[in-house]
Predict the 3D structure of the following.
Amino acid sequence: MIFISRRTFEQLVENALDELPKQFADMLHNVAVIVEEEPSDEDLDLVEDSGHELLGIYRGTPLPQRSYGMSLMPDQIAIFRGPILRIARSRHEARQEIRDTVVHELGHYFGLDDETMIY
């Protein structure tokens, strides 16, 4: 397990968001990307038990499932610091896992499921 401070980890998440292609970044509305230390029991109950660490989770209503006039709370993407640091063997690998996790969870925001995403 490597160590990256919470502040640095949060900056790496911000960097991943800043690196998004403009066409996708411009489509993000009412979604917060946050860092949490660990997934909650509720988070773990929502996903299939694959025997792997849960690196992030999308909490919200995917864009294709929304209808005009729906009043929704802001969507949330949580990136889990503990699991990412446990699986990463280097700072470079952690940065890549953060980027991949951000992109993967944004895929859920856009309505993609795990089977149709490359991340």
Remarks:
- Residues 91-109 form the longest helix (19 residues).
- The chain has a mean pLDDT of 88.
- Residues 6-116 form a domain with the Zincin-like fold (CATH 3.30.2010.20).
